[in-house]
Design brief:
Layout (H helix, E strand, L loop, with lengths): L1 H12 L3 H10 L2 H14 L3 H10 L6 H19 L5 H14 L5 H16 L11 H11 L3 E3 L2 E3 L1 H14 L7 H8 L6 H14 L8 H11 L5 H24 L13 H21 L1 H16 L8 H10 L3 H26 L2 H6 L6 H11 L5 H18 L20 H19 L4 H14 L6 H13 L1 H6 L1 H8 L7 H17 L1 H15 L4 H17 L17 H8 L2 H19 L6 H17 L4 H13 L18 E4 L2 E4 L3 H22 L8 H26 L18 H28 L3 H26 L15 H12 L7 H8 L2 H21 L10 H21 L7 H4 L5 H19 L4 H6 L14 H24 L7 H15 L7 H16 L5 H18 L3 H15 L22 H33 L14 H20 L8 H31 L5 H31 L3 H9 L2 H23 L15 H14 L2 H8 L12
Antiparallel strand pairs: 1-2, 3-4
């Protein structure tokens, strides 16, 4: 063997080619292959031997060509065997590659087949010899003709056959990466490339997870040749599938078979992270790849199902956003997808039709939150994008400033609109990101604080909520960045008050732990106290009061309201050391002395102080002496000590003048209110803490001193205020109250102050009365004075053209109001009967208390809190709401409104009506502010389940809710049972509003919901009262319920028939068939009903439009080789639903369009809805044009019927209605109505939409080979615009007789009689 080896080497070195050829021809194939094998295994001279064999085997001779082929056939498996050293194998393959082009076509074909067969049986696992395959395929493609079977093929075709055969066979998972790498060097046509990419993507699932990233990398390099979209979709699709499997395994982990091989979550996430890095790297280098990626995402997000979006693709998008040129594009795409997802979800939730057609909804928000969770596994390249996305959403969808820059107060408990939900999502992304990723914490905090400081013109409540959540979730982490918070404090005096309040409330837990933060804040607040800006001083008061509430002095009484949401580890820093308590006391007293300066400032600053003192006292009772002394000395400034002088208060110092302007200087009533509440709270707590009164140190004596002083002042004020006449305050009937003069303004301020004082004294006497008849009589005396002044104010303000009087907010506290209505209506204690009769017998007082209840609940609904003690405490406020609900419900159901005939004659609300108004506001407020406590609220009204227990399970809650619905239904039925003259419209409307609110608690699938609809339909069918406001409420309730039960188009058709029947036809010669489906539609209510019907038509059109858009985008995405969805017998359910909805809608609109509607909003709205209907019909026609172009399907019979219906029943009637509306406008006495018709361009828009519809019908007829235009009758009355101008000119120039001749030029009516 060695001899042959040496011989070949020496002959080759001597360049003795003829001898070499001769010698090689003497060797058998076996000898030759053995020689190569031995030298290769030893790694000696193998290169020289192979070169020698090539030299001695000229390709021109048959023997030489065969020997060369033998060399290739032997060396390829030898290199794959794994027995050779890597360098040796690489040398052999390199030498073979150099000589490949010399091989003949048949030899190349044999080699190609050898490679394919080796791959099929899995002999190419090392992939060393695969480097040779591209060279073989390239050489093969260059061959002109090769015999194949019985015929011939070109080299290119033969190569294609090989690749096809290769991609159709089974690949060993170990060689997938090598093959993918190999194909990069093969010249491939687009068809061949597609074969290869599809095969590689199919192999993903067979590979080990660790092998995926390198394969992704190779596939991306391969995508440089083309098929970019396919490659990206395949990679994203694979990871989406893996995520779904992972999620499924987590859900059903216990129940799954043990044999199921699960993928460890952390391993999957790391692989995903690496794959994302590879893709982003490829996108940086290949902008074409980026374009394909973003284009694919745009198409996908236009399809309303978001089927291809997943946490992996979201993470990939966010990583791509780090490339500057794509940043804006990516965030705009994500923003669009998020808001669209929320809008679609809202649309689906509000419609039974859409829920039935498309049951599932894919939540983009959930995917984004999943991406945040997944990013924990080292996805640093995604986190930056998450931060940007969070702020992008919060900036784009945060609350906007209202008119004049005002903002609505209080954030709602539930995000209801899509924009609110998107803003909330941004906050969740940032909060989760803050908790999980240390590197981005500083940036998130800095950006949040920057926005609080810079966005002074727009509301920042969403950023305050986020900041507060960050503080609560990670206070200790935040302390590391306390310098950023301190910097923000420097801007406090320049920020809006609401921002300051929110910010200080949020940092409150940190102040307990960080002395430096607290000191920094105090310095800033002291500066702010002397700010030239009023808001700056108010901010200082807010901050100081907050500090007083939260730094307890040792020995302060425990109060249930003091609980703060701070962890125990933080609390122990301050509270347990004696020194800190002493320091706290000095600190608090120092703050109090700063706050006393405010008592000489503007009314607004003083007001804040008075509203805050009660909470401070309750949290820090040790400060009682200081606070009470302050209040007493302030009160004495305005109190008349001479007992015989009237009035007991000095009003002059309470106002100040600046030029001609008069301002309030001292909110006296609030000062008095604060004093009373502090005094009574202290008295109660001292009594409960020390019932025997045996403690008598100096403090106690001092406290007794100011307590007796204050009681004496309040007693004296009560006595003297009862004696006072209005003349004593110069506020009798002759006084001027117009807001135009300074005297009027002064008198208005005086009146409000005096009324406030009366209210506070009523509350004081009520608290201390202990059901004494004398005290209650004094309360009624005080009230009669209050009432007299209130009436004068109402009367005087009503005389102006614009009523300027707005009832000032009552100073009664929520607690006292809750107690007083309970004792007025529900207290049956025998011993109190006589005293309570004093209050109960005064009807005006009872009415007043109820009106204050309504006012307080309204304030809670609008702002989330109420004035006075406990107004900011959500739990206490809810308890008061529960108590009030119980009393109001009892009062309304147990005392029939018939008893109160007086109310109706006086043209004002009866007590029952006030109770109802209170209940409605409570239910609405509860749904807005306490959405999860509705059941708890209803349970306080005394309902018990059938088994005698209070409500607990869900079934009981539904039953209880329905029980109260039935109560209100009975009340409404009683209203409707009387005659129309006894009908109280306002009360009926309130009942309907309450039913509407309560029905939202029912599940649309429940039996109770169906019963509710049945009842509402019955009422609509049987009630014939001519009251348009009641009709509007009732029909709105019906529509809102019906749309959650089934599509309302059938209902709309019946209502349109009724409206047509009631109002008559536009052609006076046609007599409309009398029919009445719903008695609620009559001459008085028909216009109201028509407007409601049209708004409902608009809603149905929204749904239809959405469905068509969805179908269109699906058709577009399915274009690539998808079979026709339409078969001759079966129509797609969505298409069927769209056609049926539009069919019924067209019939309904054809009824309305023949109705003699009055000219005005109703007519313009109808014309708009008709325009929209034709626009949507055009969209549907365009969809079928698209279907015909891509699938060559036949048009459904239903669609043809729809086109026929539009041509026969709607279009001709539209033209008649246009003529009718024009004639009405010409003869209309009201120029504004004609102007409305002109300015809205309703008629030209309608004509245009009809013509567009017909234009596209012609196109569809050509595409589908169905003559759809046979159903269309082209109108001849399209010159109506010219007629109008002619007629206007005639009216100006000639007399009435010529008007007749001009109008007779109108096209003769082609009206069919109604069948």
């Amino acid at each position: 063997m060695k001899a042959e080896m040496d011989k070949i080497v020496s002959l080759s070195d001597e360049e003795n080619i003829p001898e070499l050829q001769k010698y090689l021809s003497t060797l058998t194939d076996d000898q030759l292959t053995n020689t190569i094998t031995n030298s290769a295994l030893k790694g000696k001279k193998v290169g020289t031997i192979i070169k020698g064999i090539f030299k001695g085997s000229p390709p021109s001779s048959t023997a030489g060509a065969n020997r060369r082929l033998l060399l290739y056939q032997h060396c390829i498996p030898l290199c794959e065997s794994g027995d050779l050293q890597t360098e040796v194998a690489a040398d052999i393959i390199g030498l073979l590659m150099l000589e490949t082009h010399t091989l003949s076509g048949p030899s190349l074909a044999t080699l190609g087949s050898l490679f394919v067969d080796a791959i099929k049986v899995g002999k190419m696992s090392s992939g060393k010899s695969l480097e040779l395959f591209p060279t073989v395929l390239t050489a093969l493609a260059a061959c002109e003709a090769l015999s194949y079977g019985k015929g011939e093929l070109s080299g290119e075709e033969y190569k294609k056959q090989l690749i096809n055969s290769l991609c159709s066979s089974r690949w060993d998972p170990q060689c997938v990466i090598h093959l993918t790498t190999m194909f990069r060097d093969v010249p491939l046509s687009s068809e061949e490339l597609q074969f290869v990419v599809e095969k590689v993507l199919r192999m993903f699932s067979k590979l080990d997870l660790q092998e995926i990233p390198p394969l992704v990398y190779q596939l991306l390099l391969l995508s440089a040749k083309g098929c970019k979209k396919q490659v990206l979709d395949g990679i994203v699709g694979y990871f989406k599938e893996q995520d779904a499997r992972q999620e499924e395994e987590q859900k059903h982990g216990d129940s799954l078979d043990l044999e199921v091989q699960s993928i460890p979550q952390d391993q999957l996430r790391h692989v995903e992270g690496t794959a994302i890095l590879h893709i982003v790297f490829a996108i940086r280098l290949d902008h074409e790849l980026a374009r394909e990626f973003l284009k694919g995402f745009k198409v996908m997000y236009n399809i309303t199902s978001y089927a291809d979006l997943c946490p992996f693709s979201v993470a990939l998008l966010l990583s791509v956003a780090r490339i500057q040129r794509y940043e804006e594009q990516v965030f705009e795409l994500l923003k669009g997808a998020i808001i669209k997802s929320f809008k679609d979800e809202q649309l689906q939730q509000g419609s039974k039709l859409l829920q039935d057609l498309l049951p599932g909804h894919c939540s983009v928000a959930q995917m984004i939150l999943d991406t945040v969770q997944n990013s924990v596994f080292g996805w640093d390249h995604v986190t930056q994008g998450l931060v940007q996305l969070g702020f992008f959403l919060m900036d784009a969808f945060g609350p906007k400033p209202g008119p004049f820059g005002k903002t609505t107060e209080g954030s709602l408990a539930v995000a209801r609109t899509p924009t609110q939900q998107a803003c909330k999502l941004g906050g969740q992304v940032l909060l989760q990101g803050f908790k999980m990723h240390e590197p981005i914490r500083g940036e998130i905090l800095e950006q949040v604080l920057n926005r609080l400081v810079t966005k002074t013109a727009s509301p920042v409540s969403h950023f305050l909520d986020l900041f507060s959540d960050i503080v609560v979730s990670a206070p200790m982490i935040l302390l590391e960045s306390s310098s950023k918070v301190t910097e923000t404090f420097d801007h406090l005096s320049y920020l809006p008050l609401a921002t300051v309040q929110g910010l200080l409330k949020a940092v409150q837990p940190l102040l307990k732990v960080s002395m430096s933060l607290k000191d920094a804040l105090i310095l800033v607040l002291r500066k702010a106290m002397f700010s030239s800006q009023l808001d700056g001083r108010k901010s200082a008061v807010t901050g100081f009061l907050l500090l007083l509430k939260n730094f307890k002095v040792l020995g302060s009484l425990a109060s249930s309201q003091c609980s703060q949401a701070i962890s125990s580890s933080q609390i122990q820093v301050d509270v347990h050391s004696r020194y800190n308590s002493a320091a706290n006391e000095a600190f608090c007293l120092e703050i109090l002395s700063s706050l006393r300066r405010c008592l000489s400032q503007q009314a607004d600053v003083r007001l804040m102080l008075y509203e805050g003192f009660f909470d401070v006292l309750r949290r820090n009772s040790q400060l009682a002496s200081s606070i009470m002394q302050t209040l007493l000395s302030q009160l004495k400034r305005y109190y008349e000590p001479e007992q015989d002088l009237l009035p007991p208060v000095k009003l002059e110092p309470c106002i100040t003048a600046h030029g001609d302007q008069v301002y309030l200087q001292e909110p006296l009533a609030h000062l008095l209110s604060c004093t009373v509440h502090c005094l009574m709270w202290l008295q109660n707590t001292r009594q409960s803490a020390n019932p025997n009164g045996d403690d008598s140190d100096g403090d106690e004596e001092e406290e007794e001193g100011y307590r007796s002083d204050l009681h004496a002042i309040l007693e004296s004020m009560t006595r003297r205020m009862i004696k006072c006449e209005l003349e004593d305050f110069e506020l009798d009937k002759s006084a001027e109250f117009s807001m135009g003069s300074s005297v009027g303004v002064k008198n208005n301020i005086y009146a409000v102050l005096v009324m406030g004082v009366y209210e506070v004294l009523m509350e004081y006497n009520f608290i201390k009365a202990n059901y004494s008849k004398r005290c209650f009589e004094e309360i009624i005396e005080l009230f009669s004075r209050y009432h007299k002044l209130s009436e004068i104010l109402k009367e005087k303000s009503g005389k102006g053209r614009v009523p300027s009087h707005k009832t000032p907010r009552s100073l009664f506290s929520m607690g006292i109001i809750s107690t007083s209505i309970t004792v007025l209506f529900r207290d049956n204690t025998q011993s109190r009967e006589e005293a309570l009769s004093v209050l109960r017998s005064n009807g005006e007082f009872v009415r007043y208390i109820l009106s204050v209840v309504v006012q307080k609940i309204q304030q809670l609904d609008e702002t989330g809190h109420t004035d006075g003690p406990d107004g900011q405490n959500a739990d206490k406020t809810f308890r008061f709401l529960c108590d009030m609900t119980s009393v109001l419900m009892w009062r309304y159901t147990n005392i029939p409104s018939v008893v109160e005939e007086g109310g109706k004659k006086e043209k004002r609300s009866s007590l029952s009506q006030l109770c109802l108004e209170g209940l409605l506001r409570i239910f609405t407020t509860c749904q807005q502010r306490y959405p999860n406590k509705m059941a708890q609220l209803l349970s306080t009204m005394g309902w018990t389940s059938k088994n005698g227990t209070e409500q607990d399970d869900e079934g009981d809650v539904v039953e209880m809710n329905y029980f109260y619905i039935r109560q209100f239904q009975r009340a409404l039925f009683t209203q409707l049972s009387g005659g129309e003259e006894d009908f109280n419209s306002k009360e009926a409307q309130l009942l309907i509003s309450i039913l509407s609110v309560l029905s939202r608690q029912l599940k649309p699938s429940s039996q109770q919901f169906v019963q509710m609809i049945t009842w509402t339909v019955k009422i609509c069918k049987e009630t014939s009262f001519e009251d348009s406001a009641f009709c509007k409420g009732l029909l709105s309730l019906l529509f809102n319920l019906h749309v959650l039960y089934k599509s309302p188009v059938g209902l709309l058709l019946e209502l349109c028939q009724d409206i047509h029947s009631v109002l008559g036809d536009i052609d006076q010669d046609v007599e409309v068939e009398k029919q009445s489906n719903f008695a609620i539609v009559n001459v008085k209510t028909a216009s109201t009903a028509a407007l409601l019907v049209l708004s409902q038509v608009d809603r149905v059109l929204d749904e239809v439009d959405w469905l068509i858009a969805r179908k269109k985008s699906q058709t577009a995405s399915d274009k690539l080789g998808c079979e026709a969805t339409q078969t001759a017998g079966r129509q797609d359910p969505v298409e069927k639903a769209v056609t049926l909805q539009l069919g019924t809608l067209l019939t309904a609109l054809s009824e309305l369009v023949q109705t003699a509607l009055l000219l005005g909003t109703c007519t313009v709205t109808l014309l708009r809805e008709l325009t929209r209907t034709y626009t949507i019909l055009t969209t549907l026609v365009k969809y079928y044009i698209q279907v015909c172009a891509s699938q060559h399907g036949s048009l459904p019979a239903r669609f043809e019927k729809l086109v026929k219906l539009s041509g026969s029943h709607l279009t001709p009637q539209c033209y008649s209605f246009i003529t009718y509306a024009q004639v009405l406008a010409w003869f209309s006495l009201s120029s504004s109505v004609a102007k409305l018709l002109r300015e809205t361009k309703a008629i030209p828009n309608l004509i245009f939409s009809i013509e567009q519809y017909e234009k596209y019908l012609i196109t569809l007829s050509k595409k589908s080979k169905v003559n759809l235009m046979q159903y269309m009758k082209l109108s001849t009355s399209r010159d109506f615009r010219i007629n109008a101008a002619t007629l206007d000119a005639a009216l100006q120039e000639q007399d009435d007789s010529q008007v007749v001749s001009a109008s007779s030029t109108q096209e003769p009516k082609q009206k069919k009689r109604k069948q």
